[in-house]
Amino acid sequence: SIIEPAATVPPGPPAIARRLDLDPEATARRDLWERVKSGFAMSDLDSDLVRKWEAWYSSRPDYVERMTQRGGRYLFHIIEEVESRGMPSELALLPFIESAFNPQALSVARASGMWQFMPATGKDFELKQNVFRDDRRDVLASTRAALDYLQVLQKNFGDWQLALAAYNWGQGNVQRAIAKNQRAGLPSGYESLSMPDETRNYLPKLQAVKNIVMRPQSFGLSLPELHNHPFFLSVPIDRDIDVSLAARLAGLSLEDFQALNPQLNKPVILAAGTPRLLLPYDNANRFIREWADFRGPAASWTAWVTPKSMKPAEAAKLVGMPEAKLREVNRIPARMILKAGSTLLIPRAAHSTKDVTLEVAQNGILALAPEAVKKPAKKGAAKGKTPPKTKPTGKVRMAQDASRPAPR
Question: Does residue 255 have an active-site annotation?
Fold first, then answer.
């Protein structure tokens, strides 16, 4: 990792967050794009699809500019991690095509974060998902998990192109496509496999981005200058704090704060579950100074676990909170009841100094069930009349959404 947070803010003059394990030779190069290019090691694709995506990006210079500016926050950390594992630096460009480097991206299939993890795959790679945070959006955790996953896929297939196809389409699907070709006596490389259009376009899109990074002027594009040093540092927090207060102490807008801490689901940060924040270098130093001197109440929210199943109105009454506000902050849909053990965010008493425990911060869930609807009593059949018989309908077929991307 780039930096190492201290366990607590020490007394006296605040200490600056430290950066660790930086490669002096790599960081001596001033331009981050040059560093990325120097690590390209994957075989190039040359196809009509590559040229299609080159044309697509080159015709959208504003989009490319927004995407690369946004990626500038994260690219140094990603290339550090990629290089430390000896992986090709093309992989550092993958968030460009996964999410346009938007850590808040959410697909219709529920893939989330700049690396677009599905919920189940996120759990497989130890990305915590609870009511307070979703580590599929966490900059550090999701990058670690994505590179772990890509290394597993490369080991299984022995080929980066097949590994990337599996990252997009699913490992089992690629294995079945290979087996099908082998049974037919056909080549089983990436370009020979039958696959969905999304996966067929996946590597050409990455190749197009790679070509643009190599020669932006050839496509009528310019890339923003990215300096070869960390954009952010990690700073510790030792007690719960509202998101708005953390942003204010750091001197950041809420939008800029959330861009580096996108995993947060609630308006409060629980120190037990999220003991560090990512902040731009200068803002990190400011936050540490301000936080060390801060003496007021830091968190206006706390957590409450429902002791039994109940309606939201009953829970709101128990905690002294308007039902509408309880529903809003906890995202409780209409006509749902709270199951026992659900974790709710509620206002924290002004005099309270008790922070949310590690158990609740790490494992809080919102368990819901539909309200029981009383059905009107059926009227009996009129005297002397027989209710009509229902005609058998035959088999019921379950439709499958063939357009849903394979989980990853």
Answer: no
